Amino acid sequence: MERKLGLNKIVLIIALAFLVLIFAAFLILYFATKKPIAAFYGVPENTQKAIESVLQTTYTRKNKNSLPYNIKILDNTISLKDALKHTKKPDIIFINSGLNCDYIASIAQKKKRGFPQSILDGMTSSIKSIAPVTNNSVNAVPLLIDNYEIDIDINSFRNSGVEAINFWSDIESFATKIKPSTVAPILFSANDDETIINVFGALVESFSGASAWSSMVEKIRQTLAVKNPTYSTYSDLVSKMIQPNGELYDVVNFLTECKKKGILPRNIELTSFKDIDAYMDANLTAIVFMTLSQHRTVDYETISKYSTIYYPSTTYDVQRHFTAPVLFAVPNSKNKIARASIELLASSLQGTLSARTGLAPTQANCSTPDKQADDVRYWIAASEPPLPTLSEAAFTAKAERNAFAEVLRNLIKI
Fold first, then answer.
1. Measured between alpha carbons, how far is residue 381 from residues 104, 145, 164, 188 in Å?
2. At 24, is the pLDDT very low, low, confident or very high (cuts 50, 70, 90)?
3. Quick one: how far is CA 255 from the chain centroid?
């Protein structure tokens, strides 16, 4: 009887061992075939697709017909923290500078997922200065630079008699001189919440300096921390900012004056980027506020008629903090494939990334596709650390931005 029990025990042990081996083999197979996940949050579609095309070349699976990464587009109408609750955990997150980027970089720091500082080798000093580094560990890696720019119609400028554009008064003079020959001298897509917030932010830095921009960001954050802001809450806040010496005083005066002179459309608050694209194609506008990433979506034959400048200012260029959102790759796991990909994107593939996206690289000496990308790299390298967009620096979700954007639209209605 005892002998029979002993035999049964041996059989049971063998069976359990066999099951453990099968389970272990399953785990090994799972992790060997599991694809890392790359997620994009708030990245323009054209930029996202271009980055994805480069990312998929950074690793070759045994099954060469299968791409190495699964791609997820995160919901950027909510905060990144909330968006991550509704998806499988990504291994890499591509995201622009701002509060949401700061959040995920802090997670990378806590989980000790950062890279050695050598990953920043070759990058310009202004870019190195904004990389989140803790205890010599880089928690988010800067890859590309976008920029808030002004596109000037070359023929209109040549025919205007204006010699150069160095200050906002030159912009006004140019726009006034070409007014008889164009429908809308100055345009920007003010009907888009993020765009109107970000153009205002870039204008604040340009007119009043980075300290005014920082003050505006801080006041918005304080308002968000105390209560769930409504239109009325933001209206009260902005009404103080438009007073003399307020953060928005000079900006609102400039835009209001442009409207009075008829060089900014009376219905600018209804203007979309699709409208702007059509106006540019039909030679009906000469001064357009846009981003470098938007610039890349305009038909080449059309955009080649324009030259790009940065927002002018009375501040010396080397003291400027241009509004130039930097795109980061944040390690969200310790997946070896994902980490190796980030290292390649930050070094040997910088030229390819810049060529595919049309954005400026963070590496100082790699190739760029054209003058626009090279100019942005130079402008940022030759100035103080770039600022994120106002919408990313002060807010984390669409719902927080909506009412604030509407307040800004109403400021320029006359």
1. 26, 11, 23, 26
2. very low
3. 25
What pTM was estimated for this model as a whole?
Answer: 0.91
**Residue 152 identity:** I
**Partners of 12 in the beta sheet?**
none
- Residue 168 · residue 208 · CB < 8 Å: no
Cβ neighbours around 174 below 10 Å, total:
24
Q: Which amino acid would we find at residue 174? A: F
* Distance separating alpha carbons of residues 387 and 384, to the nearest angstrom: 9
On the 0-12 / 13-18 / 19+ scale of CB atoms within 10 A, 42 is buried
Tens digit of each residue's pLDDT (9 = 90 or more) over 278-297: 999 999 999 999 999 999 99
The Cα–Cα gap between 23 and 10 comes to 20
Rounded to whole angstroms, how far apart are CA atoms 335 and 236? Answer: 48
Which residue's entry shows tokens 């095309």?
53
What mean pLDDT is predicted for residues 112-137? Answer: 97
| Whole-number percent of the chain with pLDDT over 70 | 92
Residue with tokens 């003010």: 190
CA distances from 281 to 105, 157, 297, 302 (A): 41, 17, 12, 6
